[in-house]
Protein 1
Amino acid sequence: MYSLNNPLKLKANKTYRLTTKEYKVLFDTHHVSLCLFCNRYLNDLEMAKDVVQEIFIKVWNQKTVFKSKHTVRSYLYTAVKNRSLDVLKSKRYKSKCDLSVEAIQSMETDSFFSSELVLQETARLVDDAVDTLPLRCKKIIKLSLLGYKNGEIANELKITLNTVKAQKKIAYRKLRFQLREHIALMAHIFLP
Amino acid sequence: MLRDFGKLMELAKRLARTILLRGRVDKMDTSQELNQDEREYIMRKLAEPSHWLERSRLKKDVDETHAKDWEKLKATTVNDSKLRYLGTVVKIAAVFAGIAGCTYFFLIGNYPKDGNDSSIKQESITLELENGSVEKLTKSDNRQFKNSKGKVVGLQNADQLDYTQGETQDGSIDDSNESKVYHKLTVPYGKTFQLVLSDGTQVQLNAGTSLKYPVRFVKGENREVFMEGEAFFDVQKKQKQPFIVNTDNLGIQVLGTQFVVSSYPEDAYINTVLLEGSVGLYKSSRKRNGEEHTILEPGFMGEWNKEEENISVKEVDTSIHTAWTKGRMVFSHMKFKDIIKKLARWYNVSITNNNAQLGEETFTATFDVKIESMEDILESFKRNYGFHYDIENNQINIY
């Protein structure tokens, strides 16, 4: 259930199971970032997709019970990490790729996990916010995030410099307006 | 062990906000969450255009298979578990049906069977024709309905019934004859249906609704229809021919506009929500003169209290009242006892609530009928408010 503004207080420590819709939302929200996150370990996107798929099946079949939105996400990322490391250490994978023991050891650290996690989540939130913009604004902001200067954006999109500036203004006004709300919303999607 | 996951998520949020609002990420204080090495690594990555380029390349790849992956996942999880459950139920049901069937055959084998007919009618969409015969409509059908002269007046195209055909084909030859010819469309609980009237007015009928309408509207006369239940009207503009929806003892008169009428017999109110244009509400026993009208403006809802026979007008979020036309249910500060009435219609189940306190509790929630099962929804409510329920066939009891 996706509550707009629930007048009821959530009872402390209540656990809950995912409904079909929540499961779909969970998949839609995290599928891409989990695949990319997994790819940081495996460096093989197709294999990463398989691992993520496997984890999602597990979440459903175990009917894993979660205590909060953080535990859902934390479970997903941790499970993907563990499975990835298992794959890396498996004999079959070892024979195919020549990863040094040190490389695997560095991936096993909490530091690696935390850094990649923060990078993925940051990028996901940025993408989600930019995706809500009108098409033209979106194109301009995407280029701008890639480090393009206004003049370069104008060239690339074959529009005038003034249009770029005007569109950027609109975009930032929209972003500023909805950012707080938007990000808060994304965060609360699993809080009934 | 891992550090606080929530803290890292908060950090990601702060970073995203700073990036989007052109702030300096490297000026942020991250000493709480990260050590020096991690900070340097993350800041470097975020500042590198190549990091974002590489990400968008990979993201595109995953986006392309995203839908397919979901279908695959759904097949092995959601669908599978439902199917397995259904399988058992069907098997058990089959055994019962077998036993019951044999008993029936041996005990009352030659008893005339007519008891089933009404239950079949209940479950299907029906169209009552001018001669009183009742046709069953199946959503996958494409059918033609003809008048007494054999001319096609209505065309069924899957879940839509269209009467504009007759209007365009010929002139005014049959006008006088067909003016008194009415059809009545009835949509049972658990289903919806679309209708296009002869003037091009579109009507979407919600679950548990019936609408009686003339096969053709006559030029120069009011366009009048009769309904019970809930429907969304997008009325074709005709300056000189007001469109009137009669329901219970309320009349709703419009010229050309979009609005929703909800008038279920079990509800205490008839609600009219206006999206566009203007509508007038009046008590149908009175003459339709200007003085008796209550005029609605777009974005407002007229609430007709059936018992007190008066109308109150208030501003509403129209999207809540039209959500059902898109297969969604939105409840905004609605009492549980009213929510279960709607759920019962949508899912064609009967719900008995034995928990009086719960009935008065208000909830705000959105559901998608295509994705969520009745049980999913009950579970959602249960999580918010601890109660028990059991399901037996189509009967749900809440304690």
Protein 2
Amino acid sequence: MKMRVELDVHHLTRVEGHGNIVVRVRDGKLQEARWDVVETPRYFEAILKGKHYTMAAPLTSRICGICSLGHQLASLRATENAFGITVPPAAEKLRLLAKHAETLQSHALHVFFLAAPDFFAVPSVLPLVETHPDLVQTAVRIKGAANYLAKEVAGRAVHPVSLHVGGVQAIPKDLRALRDAMSHALEDLRSVVPVFQQIELPDFKRETEFVSLEANGSYPWIGGNVVSTDGVKKKEEQYLEVTNEYLDKHNTSKWAKLSRESYAVGALARFNNSSHRLEPEAQELAKLLGLQPVSHNPYHNNIAQLVECVHVVIESIRLIDELEEMRGEPTMCEVKPVKGQGVGAVEVPRGILFHHYTYDAEGRIKKANCIIPTTQNNANIHHDMSDLVEWSVERGKNSQEIELLCSMLVRAYDPCISCSVH
Amino acid sequence: MKYLGIEPKVLRIGVFDFTGCEGCELQLANKEDSLLAFLTAIQIVNFREISSDLGQNYDIALVEGSITRSDEFARIIKIRRQAKVLVALGSCACFGGVNAQKNAFNLVDVNREVYGNSPRETLPARAIHEVVQVDMEIPGCPVNKEEVERIVQHLIWDIPWSFPAYPVCLECKQRFTTCAFEHGQLCLGPITRGGCNAPCPAGGTGCWGCRGPTEEPNYQEFFTLAREKGFTDLEVSERLAFFGGFEGVK
């Protein structure tokens, strides 16, 4: 059969930000398949120049509404590394707890509200409110618990206000209520597992390189070496040797590459590199849902996100218990600006985020660089798409099915597009 | 469903994003205790970030972000034509927001800093009201979802809405938050519009003025206070310029 496909998806729906899908198949042969990010640039790196160190985190927070907390943590880490500051242990735990709140909120939003409608063949979560009320109410509760945790620890879920250079404002007063919220979230997560056991994801694979942070004895979140499934291992401050950014004429987002033409970051990359560091219950859930390292199926990112939700909730409960024991300990330390530079790498929901600042002696930024997870994923999505279209054509999929598969592919990466352009 | 014998209007709402972080749109999906009730009270007909169903039949357009590229002009003009009521959502839409900080630089240099020798198209960031007529502005970075809910309720029942006339300062007093100045922090609370419930000073961060000026701000007294507390004119002017809500204030 001589097959012809012409897809022009302008501003793909159910993703953060603006990107287009272009696919051309003539006589059953792939002519082109593109993922074009057309988001308007905001030039954050240029705006950061000359800014005082106290403005860096509030400003870079605005790079992204969904992972604003992660941006603040990477920004604070870069500044603190430049100034040679180590925050008090209680602050470190509070920051990780806030980080977990964001991961849970972001993953829940993506899995249940943005990706799930495809699993049920509906245009959005809104029809599911009627047809699957239990699932939607459970999802809303999980997301609510995550935002409650973020609000109590970081002052606000979107653009937090309690994370400062030198530490965190305070240990929340009512830790017991936070613990209860996380225990309920864990029950809620367990209750949705059967729904995901029934979901059949496309059986598409493309071998690629998965890049994530590596933590000492735990699943990676804040700082550490950068590692890949192709055997790369670099220090946090050597990040430029990992990201190797370059420009593509169809994109306002930059592209990145390491050992191959592209690489992937995010929940699946973290899982592929560090699954053995997950909480036992999260590891079992992965097994139950058929997720094994190294998975080269990009759609599995949704499953990895659910597995990480279970992990962060269990770890949050432990952190809350540890913080209860640390009441009265300092959460802030003294800050003195020092001339120099620092890198902060943090695993935010969609993958590794790097902030890098060079400071003058007054604590004003001379140069700034921010490399966003979706920036690192965009080339990988693009290359996946060519293979996916060929794979689909071989299986006799029609134009409509190919459009859905391509849209689901992009959504699987949970792209944060405005963030990737910044 | 009637309420006290009156049928509430079901507002058809479209949500649109321009240059920004989409955090205000995310706020619409937050405040989970009332989220399902909120979604039941209105009819979302076009909200690209959460739905593939892109209907063109909307009464109210909630618009996030600022205008920074020529293609955005055509898009906002089309939305303006379709909408009975156009609401600017968040500081980027109301004042240009943090995006407008780039306007203080030479845009050629700004482009070179990020894209080297392959510049991308960009214009000075504009608030929505600088491009089309805006019927209502809900400031905040991000917007306060509780306030958005109250405004939507007012629209449903045709009750005129007005923002608080008092500054953020008053809400700190209501919450028993110690004054940020007492912690040695600069705070725009005395001159910034209230209604956010002052989350920033409570979290240890002085107000950054994301909601723009309060009614009748006393700038002279504020500048005197800031100087007395040891803040330089540069620190004050940088803070005032952060979200673009105090343009021209010196």
